[in-house]
Model the fold of this input.
Amino acid sequence: MSDEYAGKRTKCPSCAAPLTVPAPEVAALAPASEEEAAYRALMDSPEPEPANAPAWSAPRPEPDEPAPKPKPKIPALEKRRSVPSAPRADDYDPPPSRGGGIHISSGVLGGCGMMLGAVVWFGLGWAAGVIYFYPPVLFVFGLVAVVRGLLGHSED
Done:
């Protein structure tokens, strides 16, 4: 019979008993190379048993070593640690008052300077026969600065 009937059931032509058609015997192929032979041998071999993990063992006792030496004391550090802290600001008495002095705000002084400069500029220009427009504006800005300084506004 041909190879296409391999593994199928049929009847014997002489006695009519049921039979299974045998598969054709294939000649074992020779491996093409040593590498392929090694691969086939590896694949045909059974899986190796996994190695058991080593059991836990107590750590080995360390050889007797001398106790660690204490750190040497550094005299400079000990002196630094023994220095008392600086006195707090609350420990000082406030300085004695000097009496009532005159305090002029910088805004008032700046405003007076602007007004004085404007008057000088305007006067020199008038003496030269020229009337400048900017000195009166500068005088007004100086006047505003004086008023703000007297009222206690900051210079922001």
